[in-house]
Amino acid sequence: PKNCCQERSFFCISHRAQTLNAQYRFLPALYEYTRMPQYGTAKWVVVVDDDAFVFVENLRRHLEHFPTHVPLYMGEFLEGSGWSFVCGGGGSVLSRAAMDRMNLHQCIKEIHPKCMQSDWMIADCAHRHKVRFIKEHGCNTCSHISRKRAHNIIHNNLPSCHFMQQAALFLPYLSPETSGVPSIIHGFRTEAHFRKVMLWFRETSPVNGTWLDKPVGRPLPQALASAGAGAAGGSGTGDALVTIISDEADRQRGASLRASPRPAVAGGSPSSGGGDESTDDDDDDDDEEDDEDGSGVHNINARDQEKSLRERRPW
C-alpha cells in the first residue's frame, strides 16, 4: 500500500517508513513454508526476528505442555480495546493446527492491501480463523516500561514468562540457564547487552540446543566480535526466521535456532532495534535449510526467500 503516512501518523516515523516493505514478507513466508517438505512433520512454527536469542531447550519444554492438534497462537501480547497481537521480537508461536486452519493465501489477498505491521497481520489472520490466543506467557515488556512497572515485571513476570520483547532493562535479573525461562529474548540496546546474552547462549549445545553442564567455550562469532554497538542496537530491517519445530520425538536431537549475523544490516526487528542471533560464522545461505543433522528444527530466512516469492506470487 502507498501513502500509509497520510493514512496514519504511526507510519510517518522514519524507521517505520523505511521498513514498511519488510512488513509484507511475513505472511508470504509462512505460506511458502507450508509448501516445503519440512512442514510435513512440523508440530510448531516459531517466527522470530533475527536479533533475538532462542533458548531451544526452554522453548521445547514449554511447548510440551500444549497440544499441537489445537489451533494455538502464543507469544508476548500487546492488547487494546478490541485488539491484541503478539509483539514479534519476542517470538510468534503457532501450533500445527493453527497453521493448517489459517488460509494464508486468502489472508495475503485481504490483508496486504492495508497499511499494517507484520505483527498485526499475523494476529489478524489468526483471529479471522478463530485460532486461540494464549496470552499468559509473555513478560509484559511490549509497551512503555515505567519504574513502577519494571518493578512489577521483575517480581511477577520474570520468574515464569517465556517471551520477552524488551530485555535490556532486565538482563541482570534473568537466568535462562538455571530457571528455564525465558525461551526467547529480544531487545538489546548495547553491544554489552548482546554479549551478556551470548555468554548464556554459549552454555547451550551447538548440536541440539540443550543446556551443558560446562560451557563449551565457543568463541563469539567473528561478525559480532568485529561489529560495533550499531550492529547490536541499530534500527531493524524486518528480517525474520521462520523455524519449524518437528515432532517431539526429535527433541533429543533438535538443533539450535540460529541466524548468522549481518553487520552490514543493523538490527532486524520491524518494530524495534536489536542485535543478531547467532551461534556460528556460517554464511546466510547456510541458514536456509539448517537441518543437516536430521534434527527436526529448520531455520529459513524470510528475506532470502523474497526473490523466489516475487517471481512466483501464488497470490
Provide an overview of this structure.
With 315 residues, the protein is α+β, with helices and mostly antiparallel strands. It contains 13 helices and 11 strands. It has helices at 4-7, 14-18, 26-33, 56-63, 96-101, 104-111, 118-128, 147-157, 176-179, 191-201, 222-226, 229-233, 302-312; strands at 42-49, 53-54, 72-75, 77-80, 83-86, 92-95, 132-134, 163-164, 184-185, 240-246, 297-301. A hairpin with a 2-residue loop joins β4 and β5. The two termini are 16 Å apart. The model is unreliable at 220-237 and 247-294 (pLDDT under 50).
Summarize this structure as a short list of keywords or feature phrases.
315 residues; alpha+beta; six-stranded mixed β-sheet; three-stranded mixed β-sheet; 13 helices
Largest sheet: 6 strands, mixed
Apparent shape: globular
**Individual helix count:** 13
Binned, the helix content reads 25-40%
Strand order of the largest sheet: 7-3-6-1-10-11
Q: Calculate the terminal CA-CA distance, rounded to whole Å.
A: 16 Å
Instruction: Count every beta strand, where a strand is a DSSP E run of 2 or more residues.
Output: 11
